[in-house]
């Protein structure tokens, strides 16, 4: 079927001229993406890797960088933006508010170090390749791009491996939301230096306003959904998922439109509001079905589609390698180091650091903003795009490796089991000599 679709794609121009149906090309593009992501996803599963990796590779293979069968267009872009909103809404539905609240302060420390370390390292890398009296602002902007975290890839990978409900998984989600807010502040400060029309004080007030808005709406709407799900005698299951998804879209729109906060943050908050209610599991299943059938494959493939062919040079290759290594290590060191400071064990800290590596669409949005303001020159565009694709592809691979666990892994123990394990360890530390080790006494 995939081969047939490719044949029609190769002959699409002739077919379009013959039938004057150029506007319907997007249907073939979507079909190719769905078939390609599924085919490469199966192949990646055969290699014991998450299917997300295959979907990302499918976008690279189908896009301008290789076969050039599918090109980014307005429909694919819109669906990919909707895709990450759906993924984050689903993540909110499957997140425990109690666990998220427990990780609050720790997540802030992790996110803060996960922004500071990449910002500094990105600026230093820029200094080596971009010199001049006015280059410091562009170098600083490279650091801002480094601070970005796209949690959509991580969420999908953790869900696929059934690791979303782990302590480290909840911490990654909380830290990513805070990282998004801190990233917006950094972006605003740097763009404000280049664009006098940006009022930094107003932006900070909007971010504070969003936090108040999220709390107020959360308290009101959580009670509404809990009451509705509990008292609906008609058992209107279909309307539950429709109204819930509409609410997520409204929250995503409001956060971006009125407060300048990323739409994915609003969608995640919407999921948190509905989580824990009576029909939450039903809504989650319906949303996941929609995501799996259409939205998510397009989102993952769209990242690979953004990669353009380019001419290699040794200097360019060196810059790409340095950016990729720096992007990976800064998040592992920054976020992982922050997790260690917050008393997570080394394994959990490594998982949290790896979960924050992916830059994804967030970094691309930041880069586009920089190009529009003249803060990012053409010399850095291709290397940064390749770095974004690399971090997005490598994150599921790393997560697959670091989430191998045994029976005593604290991330996979229930709260009761974890407490019992701590008591046993404490008992052993206080009484290291067991009955078997005790010396025999004469009767």
UniProtKB/TrEMBL annotation:
The record's section on Pfam families has: Na_H_Exchanger
Q: Name one GO biological process term.
A: sodium ion transport
What sequence ranges are listed for the domain Cation/H+ exchanger transmembrane? 39-400
Gene Ontology molecular functions: antiporter activity
From which domain of life does this come? Answer: Bacteria
Q: Does the keyword Transmembrane apply?
A: yes
Segments traversing the membrane: 24-43, 50-69, 75-93, 105-128, 140-158, 170-194, 200-225, 237-254, 260-277, 289-307, 319-342, 379-403
Primary subcellular site in the record, as a coarse category: membrane
Q: Where in the cell is it found?
A: Membrane
Family per similarity comment? Belongs to the monovalent cation:proton antiporter 2 (CPA2) transporter (TC 2.A.37) family.
Could you tell me what this protein is called? Cation/H+ exchanger transmembrane domain-containing protein
Upper lineage: Bacteria, Bacillati, Bacillota, Erysipelotrichia, Erysipelotrichales
């Amino acid at each position: 079927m995939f081969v047939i679709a490719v044949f029609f794609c190769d002959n699409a121009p002739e077919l379009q001229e013959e039938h004057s149906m150029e506007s319907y090309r997007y249907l073939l593009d979507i079909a190719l993406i769905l078939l390609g992501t599924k085919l490469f996803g199966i192949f990646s599963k055969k290699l014991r890797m998450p299917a997300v990796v295959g979907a990302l590779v499918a976008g690279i293979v189908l896009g301008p960088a290789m076969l050039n069968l599918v090109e980014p267009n307005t429909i694919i872009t819109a669906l990919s933006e909707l895709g990450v909103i759906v993924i984050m809404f689903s993540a909110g539905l499957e997140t425990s508010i109690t666990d998220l609240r427990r990780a609050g302060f720790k997540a802030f420390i992790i996110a803060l170090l996960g922004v500071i370390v990449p910002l500094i390292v990105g600026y230093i890398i820029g200094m080596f390749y971009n010199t001049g009296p006015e280059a410091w602002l562009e170098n600083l902007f490279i650091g801002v791009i480094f601070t970005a975290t796209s949690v959509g890839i991580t969420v999908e990978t953790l869900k696929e491996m059934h690791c979303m409900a782990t302590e480290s998984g909840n911490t990654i989600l909380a830290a990513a939301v805070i990282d998004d807010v801190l990233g917006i502040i950094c972006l605003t400060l740097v763009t404000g230096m280049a664009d006098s029309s940006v009022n930094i004080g107003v932006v900070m007030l909007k971010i504070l306003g969003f936090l108040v808005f999220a709390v107020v709406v959360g308290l009101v709407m959580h009670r509404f959904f809990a009451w509705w799900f509990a008292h609906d005698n008609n058992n209107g299951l279909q309307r539950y998922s429709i109204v819930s998804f509409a609410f997520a879209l409204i929250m995503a729109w409001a956060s971006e439109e009125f407060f300048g906060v990323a739409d994915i943050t609003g969608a995640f908050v919407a999921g948190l509001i509905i989580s824990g209610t009576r029909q939450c599991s039903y809504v989650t299943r319906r949303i996941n079905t929609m995501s799996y059938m259409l939205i998510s494959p397009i989102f993952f493939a769209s990242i690979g589609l953004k990669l353009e062919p380019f001419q290699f040079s040794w200097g360019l290759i060196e810059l790409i390698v340095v950016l990729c290594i720096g992007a990976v290590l800064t998040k592992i060191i920054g976020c992982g180091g922050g997790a260690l400071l917050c008393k997570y064990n080394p394994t959990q800290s490594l998982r949290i650091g790896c979960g924050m590596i992916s830059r994804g669409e967030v970094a691309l949005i930041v880069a586009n903003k920089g190009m529009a303001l003249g803060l990012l020159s053409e010399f850095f565009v291709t290397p940064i795009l390749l770095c974004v694709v690399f971090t997005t592809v490598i994150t599921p691979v790393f997560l697959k490796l670091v989430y191998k666990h045994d029976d005593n892994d604290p991330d996979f123990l229930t709260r009761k089991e974890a407490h019992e394990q701590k008591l046993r360890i404490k008992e052993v530390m206080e009484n290291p000599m067991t009955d078997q080790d005790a010396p025999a006494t004469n009767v």
